[in-house]
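Risk register update: the risk that structure generation would not scale has been downgraded. Supporting records follow, first protein first.
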Amino acid sequence: MMSKRITDLSEMTPVEDAARRVLALRLEAVRDRIADALSSGDDRRQHVHALRVASRRAAAAVEVFEHCLPKKVFKELRRQLRLIRRAVGMARDWDVVLARLGKGFKHADPADQPAYDMLTGYALAHRVPAQKRLEQACPEYPFGFDRLMATSLAAIRRRPAGPATFGGYVRPMLAGMVDGFNSLCDRDDGEWGQLHEVRIAGKRLRYSLELVRDCFGESLDATLAPALANLQETLGTVNDSFNAAGLLREILGGLEHCHGAVGERYRGLVERQLAEHEGLMRTGREEYRRWLQQWRSTATQQALLAVHPEMPLWGTLPLGRTA
């Protein structure tokens, strides 16, 4: 199991040493999980999910240490991780759909079984090529990825004019992430596009804070880490339902256009599942607003000050604006 925490780092650790340790651990996690995701077995779905998480953590670490890498190395590393993340993300999305269909089929009314068969076939027709795209995103594995790791780690340097210590390097960067994340939260319009932006920004902040949990005190573990984990769980469920609802609308529209008479056989289940996902999305939006109240609490804002000492407390200035 991949360790979320990066140990042995302090604010005074030389920035190039911090970069080597963090990138080595995060890239090794991706390399090891590629092997699991490419293997056959009943637990492949869990391995695909683990690779998706590992690739996101690695991408966040690469973004943090961009200024310690030559531009060419940084771009190639980011490109390769993006290829893996997109390929594994597609596979994971269809795994979620198939798991939900499989669970529903066990208790399905006989009249709905043809619709379950149709939806399962549709999902499999996308999941099978998704596995091939994942294989193509990892050429010459494991040696290709090992070369990428070795080249990237050997290229790490501290810029002469840049901060010498990890704390001096990372603190202003995290402050900018906090400001950007809080500005998104402050919009609070509840639209799906905005919630997606909050989800992505929260994930990036969460994975970046994991790198400094030994630097900035226990408040990160006690307050910020669980708060951001709860956000990801809430908005992850919303995102899954948003994607599933889009798929179901696409299928329903296709059935009406191509096979109207035949489509009536499947319409009932598709419409009920669509309504269920829309209900989950509404529930998730309300849960997000409750989460936002907690995020705006004094305890959370005080914890954020460990990372961003210049941040105004909620209510003194508009969030995302410094004094």
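Supporting record for the second protein:
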Amino acid sequence: METAFLQSFLLVVETGSMAEAARRMDVSPAAVAQQLRALERELGATLIARSGRTVAPTAAGMRIVAQSRGLLRELADLRIVVNHEHATGELRLGTINTALHSLLPEILARFVKTHPQVKMFIQSGTSMELYEALKRGDIDAAVCTHPSFTVPKNFVWALLREEPLVVLAPQRLSKRAPHDLLRSEPLIRYDRTLAGGKEADRYLRREGIVPTERFELSSLAAIALMVDRGLGVSLAPDIASPITRGLRIVHLPLPMPSAPRRFGVLWPRGSVRARLIQALVDCAHGVVEGDARR
């Protein structure tokens, strides 16, 4: 069986169009149709139902979609095993939004310079969503916060940064005490379903601070932008983001201790892509160290 025919089939299913699949593969629609007919003859079943310009998988086609993806994935794994001395293959990376808005673009810029042949698929989500995706094998590694539980022995955790809670405030309020700002200024709250938001909420409760809440959201970069516009103050992890470096805000340390947000990379131990993941982690450490020096 030609695996290229399976790839064409999956792309047609994904796009719902032979023309679009052909455009992405840089071949003619007739070539795609010919590949699908050959695949159907070999499997002895109709896989695609055509209706005008759109197509959809038949019941038989739907039954082999997941298996086809798994087969192609295993084939890619075999190529990595055989060519272990070469940095090739595909890497599926999960990431939290904070990383997308801060360290990850620079990490990827370094990674692709040394690993230009590696194809990357990037999926965003919360840390818990990414952990579940790792367990299912949907992604190879996750840039996320440390799980709230002990990391299982069949996973590897590489710490990149510890981000303490700080009060974000407009520059004009830089001389005010952090607790005073939290009590008197509108609060832009970090999402309490996330690790950093939970720790911020614990801190406020422990110190007996009852803020006047204005907004609650999950994007730390957006929170910093809102503080810059004078919409309030925030109690949030101190991220390193190029988006926030030019803002007219201050990062005020807290007078009382709090647990930092631990930010790093998580992946399954013994992964066939362990060398690629470790190379990505090495790039990440380089970026973090450079950012710390700045």
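The radius of gyration is 24 Å. On this basis the risk owner (M.S.) recommends closing the item.
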